[in-house]
């Protein structure tokens, strides 16, 4: 995996959606991150990344993350140009007999990524294409989106009304066999896709990388649209900026060290409404976690949509990752010692933690 056009670095921290800090041979510098997704399982401190020089505000542009010793192209802005080149070279399996390619065609008040048509047919048989870059995957299964996308929902509806529309998921992991919509992160995107699946074409392709990080071709991937309901379990990740003692109902005063905490819960009727409840401050205290909301900062919620009752299983797995349970917290209705766990360092930067989450979310086969 060698290419003189790229500069290897170690990722340090993501400052905001578009800017990060990297280490190049001991020197820290800013880097432009051309991807609005969360990239939570990819951008960890110390992870190898590949950069190219940039003429913009920041000296470098992040192109690849080396994940489990494999390159993942994360530049979602450049992905349209890559797909255009593949269309031009007729290396896209679904392309068929279309020979005229238009970039950013308009349909009503929407602008799609591409349209394909035959030279002699004009607009009559025009195929509108909306491209989605996919960086989220576990084992042989990829998923999209990794963050809620209102525009993605709007694009599905517009494609459905275009007469002939196609949604393409371009997966920047190799050796992928299956694709599923990420209903854990964006249930509305999943529901909209299922509701309109009869009116649009849906395709997914996994890229094939060469030794120089170039994309040699595409492999068509099976798409799975399972029937799921918005119920399951969830994790709430909190940060506590200072040691404090807080009263937790009948548990009394509990000393909480500075650090990070994971709360495990379930939402059997509506998982997302339960999480929304936890995001609000609670005047009336119902669950143990209500007592610490005003003291801790909620930094991430992680829903896991499933028909299985996995709350206690998740608690056991978090203990295996090194979580230290606060006795009796959140576990009054089960046999577990705790459903609230302390970590000295941020578990969101742990590859083992994200492997656990992605396994629970994506191992559906």
Q: How does this structure look, described?
A:
With 365 residues, this protein is an alpha+beta fold. The chain has six helices and 25 strands. The strands form six sheets. It has a six-stranded mixed β-sheet with strand order 7-10-11-14-16-17. Strands 1-2-3-5-4 form a five-stranded mixed beta barrel. It has a five-stranded antiparallel β-sheet with strand order 23-19-22-25-24. Helix 2 (150-161) packs parallel to helix 3. It starts with 6 loop residues before the first strand and ends with a helix. The model has no long low-confidence stretch (mean pLDDT 93).
Number of strands: 25
Q: Order the strands across the largest sheet as they lie in space.
A: 7-10-11-14-16-17
Please describe the biggest sheet, giving its number of strands, its sense, and whether it closes into a barrel.
6 strands, mixed
**How helix-rich are the residues, as a percent range?**
10-25%
C-alpha-based Rg, rounded:
23 Å
The best one-word shape is globular
Let me know the average pLDDT. 93
What is the rounded distance between the termini? 31 Å
Number of helices: 6
SSE topology:
Layout: E1 7-14, E2 19-24, E3 27-32, E4 48-53, E5 60-67, E6 70-73, H1 79-88, E7 100-103, E8 106-107, E9 110-111, E10 114-117, E11 127-134, E12 136-138, E13 141-144, H2 150-161, E14 165-171, E15 178-181, H3 187-195, E16 201-209, E17 215-220, E18 222-223, E19 232-240, E20 244-247, E21 253-256, E22 259-267, H4 271-279, E23 297-305, H5 311-320, E24 324-325, E25 340-343, H6 351-362
Parallel strand pairs: 3-5, 11-14, 13-15, 14-16, 15-18
Antiparallel strand pairs: 1-2, 1-4, 2-3, 4-5, 5-6, 7-10, 8-9, 10-11, 12-13, 16-17, 19-22, 19-23, 20-21, 22-25, 24-25
Helix pairs in contact: 2-3
């Amino acid at each position: 995996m060698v290419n003189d056009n790229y500069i290897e670095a170690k990722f340090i921290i993501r400052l905001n959606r578009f800017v990060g800090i990297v280490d190049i041979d001991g020197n820290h510098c800013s880097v432009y991150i051309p991807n609005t997704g969360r990239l939570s399982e990819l951008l960890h401190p110390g992870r190898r990344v590949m950069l190219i020089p940039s003429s913009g505000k920041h000296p470098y542009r992040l192109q690849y993350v080396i994940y489990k010793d494999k390159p993942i192209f994360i530049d979602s802005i450049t992905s349209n140009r890559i797909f255009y080149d593949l269309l031009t070279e007729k290396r896209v399996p679904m392309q068929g007999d279309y020979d005229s390619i238009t970039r950013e065609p308009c349909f009503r008040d929407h602008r799609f990524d591409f349209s394909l048509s035959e030279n002699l047919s004009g607009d009559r048989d025009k195929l509108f294409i909306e491209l989605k870059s996919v960086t989220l995957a576990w084992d042989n299964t990829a998923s999209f989106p990794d963050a809620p996308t209102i525009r993605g929902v709007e694009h599905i509806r517009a494609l459905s009304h275009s007469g002939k529309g196609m949604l393409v998921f371009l997966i920047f992991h190799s050796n992928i066999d299956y694709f599923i919509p990420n209903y854990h992160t964006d249930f509305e995107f999943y529901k909209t896709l299922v509701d309109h699946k009869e009116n649009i074409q849906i395709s997914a392709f996994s890229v094939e990388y060469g030794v120089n990080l170039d994309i040699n071709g595409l492999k068509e991937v099976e798409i799975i649209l399972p029937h799921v309901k918005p119920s399951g379990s969830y994790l709430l990740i909190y940060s506590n900026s200072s040691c404090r003692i807080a009263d937790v109902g009948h548990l009394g005063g509990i000393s909480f060290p500075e650090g990070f905490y994971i709360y495990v819960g379930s939402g059997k009727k509506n998982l997302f409404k339960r999480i929304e409840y936890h995001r609000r401050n609670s005047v009336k205290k119902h669950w143990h976690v209500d007592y610490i909301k005003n003291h801790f900062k909620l930094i991430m919620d992680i829903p896991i949509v499933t028909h299985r009752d996995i709350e206690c299983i998740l608690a056991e797995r978090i203990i295996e990752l090194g979580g230290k349970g606060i006795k009796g917290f959140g576990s009054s209705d089960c046999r577990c010692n705790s459903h609230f766990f302390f970590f000295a360092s941020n578990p969101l930067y742990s590859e083992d933690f994200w492997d656990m989450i992605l396994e629970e979310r994506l191992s559906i086969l």
